[in-house]
Design goal:
By secondary structure, the chain is mainly beta. It has a domain of 131 residues: 2-Layer Sandwich (Copper Amine Oxidase, Chain A, domain 1), CATH 3.30.457.10. The chain contains two helices and 18 strands. It has a five-stranded antiparallel beta sheet with strand order 7-6-5-18-17, with helices on one face. A five-stranded antiparallel beta sheet has the order 10-11-12-13-14, with no helix packed on it. A four-stranded antiparallel beta sheet has the order 8-9-16-15. The termini are far apart.
């Protein structure tokens, strides 16, 4: 489905019919003037709540699990992934570059409650979660964590954020671990398991004897 927004308009309303069991919709935007068209924007993927009140699958920004815990499962070369046990989908698959996994990092940051910002003039991504601020630049192998310069991968200086087919792809392990996640690689099925502990419960007082 495509829609055209007229001159000086900045919104469009559409009625969308989804196939049974489908809860995801994607959009791309571009400007056009006769034969001079802009490149399409990054794809936006979001959930559409079923009118029956059913619960759609998880997407970036989905609700955390118990006590804020989040479990994510990604697979190299597959756009499908799991968030807290619910199947969902990205618009682009994780890839391996320089023996490291890259993906659009918002599929990790948003479910765990981190904010993400793109500074186009600097080709920089800023990730902000609680007391941690991570800054990364496209094509640079160093990042900043709370203002301190650190290598993204001390063992491989070629690991860095890249733009691949118009999408910003970020090093998964470096970002996830610096946001407090546990990362596990399962080579048998090219799977990445990410666990975010979330908020821990305060210890409860012991009952009187």
């Amino acid at each position: 489905m495509s829609s055209t927004v007229g001159v000086d308009k900045n919104s469009v309303t559409e009625k969308i019919s989804l196939e049974p069991g489908c809860a995801l919709c994607t959009y791309r935007v571009r400007a056009y003037k006769l034969f001079l068209n802009s490149d399409p924007s990054n794809t936006v993927v979001f959930n559409i709540a079923a009118s029956s009140g059913g619960s759609p699958g998880g997407t970036p920004g989905g609700s955390p699990g118990v006590n804020g815990q989040v479990d994510l499962d990604f697979f190299i070369g597959k756009a499908s992934y799991n968030i807290n046990g619910s199947a969902s989908a990205m618009d682009v698959s994780p890839v391996i570059k320089e023996n490291r996994t890259l993906l659009p990092i918002r599929f990790i940051t948003e479910p765990i409650g981190a904010d993400i910002q793109w500074i186009d003039a600097e080709k920089k991504v800023i990730i902000n979660q609680s007391s941690t601020i991570i800054e990364l630049w496209i094509g640079k192998n160093k990042a900043e964590i709370n203002g301190r310069s650190v290598p993204i991968d001390p063992d491989n200086s070629s690991v860095m954020p890249l733009i691949i087919n118009g999408r910003t792809m970020m090093p998964l392990r470096f970002i996830a671990e610096n946001l407090g996640c546990e990362v596990k690689w399962i080579p048998e099925n090219s799977q990445i398991i990410i666990h975010y502990q979330g908020d821990k419960l305060d210890p409860q007082p012991e009952p009187p004897m």
